[in-house]
Amino acid sequence: MDERIIAEILKFRDERGWKQYHNPKDLAISLSLEVAELLENFQWSSSEEAVSKRIPNIREELADVLIYSVLFAEAVGLDLNDIIMEKLSMNNQKYPIEKAFGKKEKYTEL
Questions:
Q1: For an engineered disulfide with 94, which of 1, 21, 106, 107 has Cβ 3.0 to 4.6 Å away?
Q2: Which tens digits make up the pLDDT trace of 6-55?
Q3: What is the separation of C-alpha 30 from the centre of its chain, rounded to a whole number of angstroms?
Q4: Architecture in CATH for domain 1-78
Q5: Which residues contact 51 (CB under 8 A, 6 or more apart)?
Q6: How many helices (H) and strands (E) does the chain have?
Q7: pTM
Q8: Distance separating alpha carbons of residues 34 and 61, to the nearest angstrom
Q9: CB within 8 A of 75, min separation 6: which ones?
Q10: What Gene Ontology terms for biological process does this UniProt record contain (predicted)?
Q11: Rounded CA gap, 87 and 14, in Å?
Q12: To 5 degrees, how large is the angle CA 82–CA 74–CA 85?
């Protein structure tokens, strides 16, 4: 993840004195709530309809999800670049191209 973006997120939080409220539990709750707000855009709509009609709100809610993800990672001492690369490596092993290409099944079903 771009270190400048992370620095801006942390600066925004710190300038407002909010770090005291950003414990892992409350950040996980906030992250879940923001994901639910993102999902609301798709309730009772097709994907195409939601994206065509609600992209400004989808952008805003996705930004909130990503911001809370950065804050959560910082609160528990995880480096986003490291954990994303580790997960991609794990997924590469679970979903080899020759077995997973064009398929939606979980790795246990391939």
A1: 107
A2: 999 999 999 999 999 999 999 999 999 999 999 999 999 999 999 999 99
A3: 12
A4: Orthogonal Bundle (1.10)
A5: 58
A6: 5, 0
A7: 0.91
A8: 6
A9: 22, 23, 24, 27
A10: nucleoside triphosphate catabolic process
A11: 29
A12: 15
